[in-house]
Design brief:
- The chain has 288 residues and is mainly beta.
- The chain has a single domain, classed as Jelly Rolls (Sandwich), CATH 2.60.120.10.
- It is built from one helix and 22 strands.
- The strands form four sheets. Strands 3, 4, 5, 6, 7, 8, 9 and 10 form an eight-stranded antiparallel sheet that branches.
- β6 and β7 form a beta hairpin.
- It starts with a strand and ends in a 19-residue tail after the last strand.
C-alpha cells in the first residue's frame, strides 16, 4: 500500500504512474482560492476524466452574478449569503458553517437563467456535467437535507459520520445527470466505511475544521494524504474509505455522475469488511 502527500520527483521528472496520481489527487489549491472562478476539474479532462466539472466561485458582498447555463449545474453554498432567482424560482441562501449547518444548494438544467445578489462575502462550489436534458429548477435549504448519522452503532461508533444527500434519484427528475451530497467525518474517525465502490465516477472536495487539518483517503490500495482544499477523483471501481486525523473534523462534498446506461443508486460494499455492519458483530476493544 502506498501513502502519498505531494507527488513528484526531486529532479523534476515524473513517471506515468506519478502523473496519473497527480491528476487524481489535486493539491495545487492548498493556500485557498482567489476571488472569482477557479476551475479544478472539467467534464472533458484529458486525463482521468470523471465526467464532472468542478469550480470554486468566490464573490464579494455587493457583487452580482447573472448566467444562462449551458449544461446541468449545481451551486453548493460553502459560506456567505445570497438572494436570487433560478428559472423563475426565487431563493435566499445563507451559511456560516460547513460542519454545523446542513446544505444549501441550487440545481438547474441547461438553458436556465440564474441571477444572484451577494449580501455578504460568499463562496460556492459549482458542479456541472455534459447534460442538456430539461428538468425544473430546485432549491434545497438546510431543512430539506438531513444529517443522516450513518454508521451509528457499528464497531463502537468508530465510523459514525453525518451524510447529507442533497439530491439523488429518490428526489430528482430522471433527466438529471448528477448526484450531490456532503459528509462530515468526526475527528479521529472514519467515513465512507466499510470500503465500497461503484462504476460511476465520483469527486471528493475537502475542507477541515483547522487549516493544518488532514486526513487519509483510499483509492483502492493507494492511500492519499488529503489536506484543506484538496480534490480527489474516484474512478475504476476503486474502494474509497476515508479517515480524519484526531483533532480535525473533515468535510467533503461528493458528486457522482450517472452513466447513460447505469444510474447510481447504492454502492457495493467490499465483502470481506461487511461483517462490521451486523448488529451482532464481535470485535476487539480494550478491557482495561
Amino acid at each position: 500500500m502506498q501513502l502519498n502527500d505531494h507527488i513528484g520527483t526531486s529532479n523534476g521528472s515524473m513517471s506515468r504512474k506519478e502523473n496519473t496520481e497527480m491528476t487524481l489527487h489535486i493539491t495545487e489549491h492548498r493556500d485557498g482560492f482567489p476571488a472569482g472562478t477557479t476551475n479544478i476539474t472539467r467534464h472533458d479532462d484529458a486525463d482521468n476524466n470523471a465526467l464532472i466539472t468542478l469550480d470554486v466561485v468566490k464573490l464579494a458582498a455587493g457583487e452580482s452574478l447573472s448566467v444562462k447555463t449551458d449544461v446541468e449545474t449545481a451551486w453548493l453554498l460553502m459560506s456567505g449569503s445570497v438572494t436570487g432567482n433560478a428559472g423563475g424560482t426565487e431563493f435566499a441562501l445563507q451559511r456560516s458553517s460547513l460542519f454545523d449547518e446542513s446544505s444549501s444548494c441550487v440545481h438547474v438544467a441547461a438553458g436556465t437563467e440564474v441571477d444572484m445578489q451577494v449580501l455578504s462575502d460568499t463562496e460556492f462550489t459549482v458542479y456541472s456535467c455534459d447534460n442538456t436534458l430539461p428538468f425544473a429548477p430546485r432549491v434545497f435549504q438546510p431543512d430539506d437535507v438531513a444529517n443522516e448519522p450513518r454508521g451509528k452503532g457499528q464497531v463502537n461508533d468508530r465510523c459514525l459520520r453525518y451524510v447529507r444527500t442533497i439530491f439523488d434519484d429518490t428526489n430528482s427528475d430522471p433527466n438529471t445527470g448528477l448526484v450531490l451530497g456532503e459528509v462530515i467525518t468526526f475527528q479521529g474517525a472514519w467515513s465512507s466505511y466499510p470500503p465500497h465502490h461503484h462504476p460511476q465516477p465520483e469527486i471528493y472536495h475537502y475542507r477541515f475544521t483547522e487549516p493544518q487539518g488532514y486526513g487519509h483517503a483510499e483509492l483502492g490500495e493507494t492511500v492519499l494524504k488529503v489536506r484543506n482544499y484538496d480534490t480527489v477523483k474516484i474512478l475504476d471501481l476503486n474502494d474509497h474509505s476515508q479517515c480524519s486525523a484526531p483533532g480535525y473534523g473533515m468535510y467533503y462534498s461528493w458528486v457522482i455522475r450517472h452513466l447513460p446506461d447505469n444510474r447510481y443508486s447504492v454502492p457495493e460494499f467490499t465483502e470481506e469488511h461487511t461483517w462490521i455492519m451486523r448488529p451482532d458483530a464481535k470485535y476487539w476493544d480494550p478491557q482495561v
